[in-house]
Amino acid sequence: MISLLYVDDEPALLDAGSIFLERSGELLVTTVTGGREALQLLESRHFDAIVSDYQMPEMDGIELLKEVRRLYPDLPFILFTGKGREEIVIQAINNGVDFYLQKGGDPKVQFAELEHKIRQAIRRRTAEEDRRLTEKRLDAMIQLYAMRDYPLKDITDYALEQAVIITQSTLGYLAFLTDDERVLLMYSWSKQAMDECRIQEKPREYPVEKTGLWGEAVRQRRAIITNNYSADNPLKKGTPPGHVRLQRHMNVPIFDGNRIVIVVGVGNKLNNYDEDDILQLSLLMNGLWGIIRRKRVEEALHKNLDELAKNQKDLAESRQMLRSVLDTIPVRVFWKDRSLHYLGCNLPFAKDAGYQTPADIIGKTDYEMGWADQAEMYRADDKVVIESGNPKYNYEEPQTTPEGKRIWLRTSKIPLRNTDGELLGVLGTYEDITEAKRIQGVITGKNEELQAAYQQLSATDKTLRENYRQLLEHQAALKENEEKYRNLFEAESDAVLLIDNETGAILEANNAATALYGYSKDEILSRKNTDLSAEPEDTERVTRTTPVLADRVVTIPLRYHKKRDGTVFPVEITGRFFNWGGRPVHVAAIRDITERQQAAEARQGRADRAVGYQKALVELATTDAPTLRIALNRITEMGSRILNVDRVSIWFFSKDGESLTCNDLYIGSISIHEYGREINRKDYPRYFSALQDNRAIVAKDTLTHEQTFEFKKEYFGQYKIVSALYIPIRTGLTVVGVLCFEETKSPRSWDIEDQDYAIALADYTAIVLEQARRRLAEKDLRKSEEKYRTVINRANEGIVILQEGILQFVNPRAAELLGGSPEILNGRSFYDFVAPAEREKVRAMQLRRMEGEDVPSVFETILISRDNVVINVELNAGIMDYNGKSSDIIFIRDVSDRKRSEQSLRLANEKLNLLSNVTRHDILNKLTIAIGYLELAKLTHEREKLEDFIRKIDATLHVMEDQIMFTRDYQDMGVKDPEWQDASETFDLAVSQLDTGKVQITNNLSGLTVLADPLLGKVMYNIIDNSLRYGQNLTSINASYRREGSTTILLIEDDGIGIPAKDKSKIFEKGFGHHTGLGLFLAKEILSLTGIEIMETGFPTKGARFELHIPAGRFRISEST
After folding, report:
1. Is the dihedral of CA 616, 621, 622, 624 positive or negative?
2. Window from 534-538, 577-581, 607-611, 944-948 with minimum mean pLDDT
3. How far is the C-alpha of 130 from the C-alpha of 138, rounded, in Å?
4. Residue 912 banded pLDDT, cuts 50, 70, 90
5. How far apart are the first and last CA of the chain?
6. 679 DSSP β-pair partners
7. Confidence category of residue 918, pLDDT binned at 50, 70, 90
8. Reduced to 3 states, what is the DSSP secondary structure of residue 791?
9. Taking a C-beta distance cutoff of 8 angstroms, is the pair 148, 295 a contact?
10. Is the dihedral of CA 973, 974, 978, 979 positive or negative?
11. Residue 530 DSSP class
12. What is the edge-to-edge ordering of all strands in the sheet holding 1093-1096?
């Protein structure tokens, strides 16, 4: 059976419609009279479809449709309404309505068509839901495949959440099954399940034999659906405290071949689970298992690959370490193949062989080495080791170096084998023992001498041997230290001299010293330190201070020395004084500081020039020039004098940038100024492009420079210009001209100081140009001010200027609108003339505009003149500078006539729309109800039902009559001008038209006269009629009034049951109430025409009280009262 929710604000139409729709026996109709009530019902009950009217109080059918689509996007929705306007249809379609059906015509045919649309919408939504679920499952599979590299928990959690969505459930779980299918390993819970679960310690392992319904999918090896979980079921074993409450449940086993690998369960679907749910869930989870299985295979493969990569890395690191060791050790290492070609070696071996790297010797033989003359001997040794398989250790052999020197080696060779023991060649090592052999020879000779001495001096044997041992150790240490000293001495980049303090003789000099002074080693060692000094007396004085300076380091930052050719140059000296072999000496480290001194002198020169340039600019800036011509003259003269250039000129671009005109050329050699020459881009495109790209042109040679060679034929040749500096003149980001410096004497490099000064002078030129433009603009402004002042004074619109809200300027039209002369109005706050209700809005808008915010410049408001005339105006506001201060300028247009026209048009449109609504919607609804009951009466033969239908038809026709009467009253509203009416007489007239029965009427309105629409009596009639109709235990109605400030309040109150609090905000809305729903709506509309507000302020159960708030100027109270 189809469950239908039917929404309409006409109870009678709901009643008739339900009867028609339920006649087939296949629809069960639930009715509500408003959208809010429908949404509340949807929270607790499921419906297969919704049928709704469009025009309803509080929430219309389109608003209900929007909420339903937001909350229940797949619920079929049919709009069944008397509104046939195209815009309503478009809104409904845009917001997802399934069908739109218009009321009217034969009810039997109409409701049959409605039932057909309901069935069609449900079928279509069901098909769409199936398609949507399939798409969601496919999307989930695509996403799962994309997540294959994610952690397994992320994959299963995502798959489970998608399973919950696809099956329209609210919770779910996923468990893996052990290989023996005996234990469920719970792996993932859906998020909502975890949020709702209150079990403190959640178990992860569930033996299948101990599980209830959840284990049936394993035991029965099929999907299990339980659509009534609360019903008695022998298979259930209960849930622990805090477990999520289950209403429906479905779990599905997932197979890998014949073995169950996963059990997935979902629960609490709003509707029953079915075979489609099993299918969708099985397909999704089978896809998940495929990904998991693949992921496990890939992880195993990655693990193997990672291990392999690690092994390869370890091997590479091991090889690198071995190579580093081989290349570092002093022993030479090599290895050859069985044909005695080199397979490799370490770096020292390659160097001995005359090659740069070990790779250079691969594939070569001993015949290609520096020791080719010993090749046969080496190869013979190699062959013996290879053929015998036995090593040869520590034997001596000669070698010839690439330089032809003969040395001695201690060599070892062994067979080279692989890990299988296969013979690959020979591996050898050797070390150079030439020096050791020499020392050994010396030692042997000494030993022989000592032996002789020993034989001769046996009596002193023990002492001599000990002395001899110590002597040898001392000699070895001295030799080692001497070698270290010699290496350090020669490696020093500064010149180093060892000098005798007493004689000044140079005892030792390194290579850097001979190179610095230009002497050979022998020459420099034959001279004294004073021979190298350009200040010999100072050098000799330092030498004489030796006793004072002993064991100290002395630094002399500046001395002058001379070279062999007599060149004098500055040096920095660091000296160390000490005793050496019993004689006072010092070591002097000498550094040539010629370049350092030249750089310092250059920096000082540049600084002096910069100071001069700056003074010149200050002089120029502080000298007033009355005209642009004079200012440009001074700039070119200053540039010529400071940079010592013969020709300096200033050129400005034309507006289109296609030409340059010379505004001033100063020729220093003859002290004259010229101007007027013009050049064009088409003749000098490179020059123009460089300048307009804001690039300075620095040309040492104007005839060859890329941007200036275009001039050589006619310009540079004519004026003998050899070098030039061209600096763009900019204002803001725009290049407006060029400042030219042209040298006619000799080529000039234009160093950075020249360029900086030229740029500064170009910037000053831009400032001078801007000042000239400003003076011209100010002159034009003064002229235009006179012109615009005349226009402003004669303008038809009011114009005012404000500073901080105070009027500073008022034109004659504004003075007329505000009710005073400009002299009276200036100095007053503009906001004093803004209606109080509008004042803060206007003030806030002006402040925001002054602060730079983007606010509307044109807006409407209300002004009140000094003589209290209310004026509807349109303000057009902007910001301007007035007397040197930022100010508001406001244009004021009187729109009172337009406002009156707009109000009349709005009222006419409102009447037209409402009358159309009442006639086409409300009356059509009642007509449909009457016809519906008439059709039902024709179909029944039961007297009781027939009489009921006739009573309902009669009541409906009476409501239609009242609605038609309302259209007459509403049409008359506002047609006549408001008039002064005696409130007491008007109240009495309204009472006289009603049957008040035993209700006591009290009229205390005497003395009050109200300016209102002629239908004021109809307002009082409707209020009294409502009290009489719905007051129930009503006994009295009282009318009175009271003053509250500038307002008078007219009260009509009764002692009935009052109006419920929930309805107080709705009673003035059209259509709300028990009858036509138009009476109080009409009252509010009539009163609003003259600014009177109506509100209900009574208390439920104590009576209704209607207050009419009459503003100042709309009432009179006679003094007698």
Report:
1. positive
2. 607-611
3. 12
4. very low
5. 72
6. 660
7. very low
8. helix
9. yes
10. negative
11. G
12. 1000-1003, 1036-1044, 1047-1054, 1105-1110, 1093-1096
- 3-state class (DSSP) for residue 1096: strand
The pLDDT of residue 1075 is 46
Closest CA to 502 of 543, 553, 552, 550: 543
Provide the 3-class DSSP secondary structure of residue 751: coil
Name which of 731, 738, 733, 750 is nearest 635 in CA terms. Answer: 738
Query: Average pLDDT in the 718-737 region?
Result: 89
SS3 257: coil
Q: Determine the residue type at 1047.
A: T
Instruction: Quote the tokens at residue 1007.
Output: 């003395």
| Overall average pLDDT of the 126-140 stretch | 74
Residues 486/510, Cβ–Cβ less than 8 Å:
no
N residues, the chain? 1121
Nearest-angstrom CA–CA distance, 33 and 943: 29
Q: What span, in angstroms and rounded, lies between the C-alpha atoms of 208 and 776? A: 99
Could you give the CA distance from residue 256 to residue 291 in angstroms, rounded to a whole number?
Answer: 12
229-269: pLDDT as tens digits: 888 887 877 777 767 788 889 999 999 989 999 999 999 88
Kind plus residue range of the DSSP H or E element containing 210: none
Task: Return the top range by mean pLDDT from 70-84, 301-315, 337-351, 1079-1093.
Answer: 337-351
Segment 829-844 shows an average pLDDT of 88
Amino acid at 153: K
Tens-place pLDDT, residues 801-829? 998 889 999 898 888 888 888 888 898 99
Distance (Å, rounded) from C-alpha 174 to C-alpha 262?
7
Report the alpha-carbon distance of residue 731 to residue 653 in Å, rounded: 12
Alpha-carbon gap, residue 897 to 892, rounded angstroms = 14
Q: From residue 305, give the alpha-carbon distance in Å to each of 15, 295, 301, 474, 668.
A: 77, 15, 6, 62, 84
Joined together, the tokens standing for residue 485 give 């000293």
Residues 6 or more apart from 567 whose CB is under 8 A from it? none
CA distance 231 to 249: 12
Torsion over CA: 844, 849, 855, 860 (sign):
positive
CA atoms of 205 and 193, how far apart (whole Å): 18
Q: Are 284 and 137 in contact (CB under 8 A)?
A: yes
Amino acid identity of residue 209, one-letter, is E
φ and ψ at residue 917, rounded to 5 degrees: -65, -45
Alpha-helical segments (H) within 184-274: 191-196, 213-219
State both tokens at 308: 């392999």
Angle between helix 943-972 and 1079-1088 (nearest 10): 0
Q: Within 13 Å, how many C-alpha atoms sit on residue 713's CB side?
A: 3
Residue 1112: how many other CB atoms lie within 10 Å: 10
pLDDT for residue 329 is more than 50: yes
CB neighbours of residue 1087 within 10 Å: 21
CA atoms of 936 and 945, how far apart (whole Å):
9
pLDDT band at 343 (very low <50, low <70, confident <90, very high): very high
For 1075-1117, the pLDDT digits (tens) are 444 557 767 877 887 788 999 998 888 899 999 999 887 889 8
Range 478-493 average pLDDT = 57
Rg of the chain taking only CA atoms, in angstroms: 56
- Pick from 1035, 1053, 1056, 1036: nearest CA to 1102: 1056
d(CA 700, CA 706): 11
pLDDT, position 74: 85
Report which DSSP code applies to 665.
E
Measured CA to CA, the distance from residue 605 to residue 551 in angstroms comes to: 41
E strands, 386-470, are 392-400, 406-417, 423-432
Tally Cβ neighbours within 10 Å of residue 1114: 18
Beta carbons of 59 and 34 less than 8 angstroms apart:
yes
